[in-house]
Amino acid sequence: MNTTGTSPSGATDIDVLRVFCAGDGRYGNALGVVRDGRAYPDEASRQALAKELGFSETVFVDDPERGTVDIYTPGVRLPFAGHPLVGVAWLLDVEVVCPPAGEVWVRGDGEFTWIEARAGWAPPRTLRQYGSAAEVDALEVPEPGEWIYAWAWEEEAAGRIRARGFPGRGDGIDEDEATGAAALLLTAELGRALNIIQGRGSQMLTAPGPDGIIELGGRVRLERTLTV
């Protein structure tokens, strides 16, 4: 694979994860993880690699023991993002990950990896409610513009939600398969635990906690390793 962000130190391995998988291991949002962040030492080379890879986010690990990470979409650097932090926490098997937004505590329960975060760390999203899951399923990808999180109740009493995410960035990511940051914002707005099915069938679980903290959990699996 060729990339405009080629490592100055030679070939670099990139783990490709699927984050927020369904119970049978399918679906999930693809995530690239560069375990040796030193291979891409500056923001320009990291942004170029993230653009070339084309995942909704790519994570660079700067300190695997302390969980220090740096997150990029194909177009911008992010201080916080949900699915990259769940994925890299699972991969590194650490108790805390540290994006620029702050310390994010981690726990695992055997099936799900959970992070604790604040909705205020999430970038803005337009939360747009629809009358039914069928309406959400029927939506066309909108023109580039605002970041829209379309959602509807599937079973309100059980906290089950159908959702789709449209970044509207014009960077090649027309629809985001699973968006942890949007799940945090929706949980904060509704004030209750949620079981969200997004995209083709990815699953996210959330639970409000004390002092404005929200837990976000999902399944993660390693799909493959790329060498660039």
CATH-assigned fold name of the largest domain: Diaminopimelate Epimerase, Chain A, domain 1
User: What assembly state would you assign to the polypeptide chains in this entry?
Assistant: single chain
Q: State the secondary-structure class.
A: alpha+beta
Please indicate the count of domains: 2
What is the CATH homologous superfamily assignment of the largest domain? Diaminopimelate Epimerase, Chain A, domain 1
Spatial extent as radius of gyration: 17 Å
Name of the top-level CATH class of the largest domain: Alpha Beta
Biggest beta-sheet profile: 14 strands, mixed
Distance separating the two termini:
6 Å
Note the beta-strand portion.
35-45%
Uncertain spans? 1-8
Total helical elements: 4
Q: Could you tell me the number of beta strands?
A: 14
Tell me the overall shape. Answer: globular
State the helicity in percent bands: 10-25%
Task: Compute the average pLDDT.
Answer: 93
Please, could you describe this protein's structure?
There is one protein chain. The protein folds into 2 domains: 13-111 and 218-227, Roll (Diaminopimelate Epimerase, Chain A, domain 1), CATH 3.10.310.10; 126-212, Diaminopimelate Epimerase, Chain A, domain 1 (Roll). The protein is built from 4 helices and 14 strands. The chain has helices spanning 43-53, 82-92, 133-137, 180-190, and strands spanning 13-21, 29-34, 57-63, 68-72, 77-78, 96-97, 104-108, 113-118, 126-129, 148-155, 160-166, 194-198, 202-208, 213-227. The protein has 228 residues and is of the alpha+beta class. Strands 1, 2, 3, 4, 5, 6, 7, 8, 9, 10, 11, 12, 13 and 14 form a 14-stranded mixed sheet that branches. Strand 10 (148-155) and strand 11 (160-166) form a beta hairpin. The protein is globular and about 50 Å long. It comes from Streptomyces roseicoloratus. InterPro entries: Phenazine_PhzF-like. This is PhzF family phenazine biosynthesis protein.
